[in-house]
Amino acid sequence: MTPPSLAELASHAEALPSLPEVVNYLMRSLKDERADVDTLAHHINSDPAIVARLLAAANSVTTGLSTRIYSAKQAFLVLGADRVVSIIMASALSYRYDTRSSGFDARLLWRHSLGVASCAQVLAEQSSINPDLAFTGGLLHDIGQLLMFTASPINYLQALDLRHQDDLPLIAAEHSLFGYDHAEAGRALAIKWNMPTEIVDAITAHHEPDESGSEIGNLIHVSEVLSHALDLGEQPNNRVPDLSELACATLGLSWPKLAGHFAEIEARYDGLRIALGI
Fold first, then answer.
1. CB 217 within 8 A of CB 204
2. Domain spanning 7-276: CATH superfamily
3. Torsion angle defined by CA atoms of residues 75, 80, 81 and 86, in that order, rounded to the nearest 10 degrees
4. In the beta sheet, which residues pair with residue 101?
5. Within 13 Å, how many C-alpha atoms sit on residue 231's CB side?
6. Per-domain boundaries in the chain
7. How far is CA 70 from the centre of its chain?
8. Is the pTM of this model over 0.85?
9. Residues 104-153 pLDDT 10s
10. Contact at 8 Å (CB) between 41 and 51?
């Protein structure tokens, strides 16, 4: 079976569940300093399923507090907007795209994505990049894998087998069967979904940042490598990608500087993963 071309791929996005409106709103609000707690809570309350998952996750994260969290607004006040946005994004996406089949388990994909998102958020807090934007870029950086699997499951499973058999980077295995990789597929999907330019850049550049020169692309690339190095997603046959020295230099990062954030990254990742049940 011949897989779809990259130009044809975006048409298969219709087979994926649509992004919840609250997620679209949060992405539009990431850089809007005028967005206030009441407005954000109002939009969150428009999706009961997300409210339920937010409250469950928030109460799990805040175990030990005498007051239980019972509303989206209270979650903002107790946890802070950054953490609430992180929980909502991760919860909504992992819930909507919980695809499992022989050879492909979206739960592993979301664990890895959550690991990259946690790294990106912590590193962004040390720079001029918006931490919420960084978290979302990390969470969505591998969304192209899901689209490629949805569009052509047989070919994508063959690419996964080829990666393991020949010990190849995943993007090389994808190119051999599809003629493109999940970063390119994710870019096409992000553009179709009208995502912010920074999210498109984060997805596009996470494996080859030197080609784009994007600041957030550099950050997601470094976060990708760091997540694999820390084995945050507990991936089978975990392989650490090559780290771009140019991306690190551009961001003003070094390995000793990164090492100073390992404990914080691992704690943040573990807290979110347990809270979200993934």
1. yes
2. Hypothetical protein af1432 (1.10.3210.10)
3. -80
4. 104
5. 6
6. 7-276
7. 27
8. no
9. 788 888 889 999 999 999 999 888 888 888 988 998 899 999 889 888 98
10. no
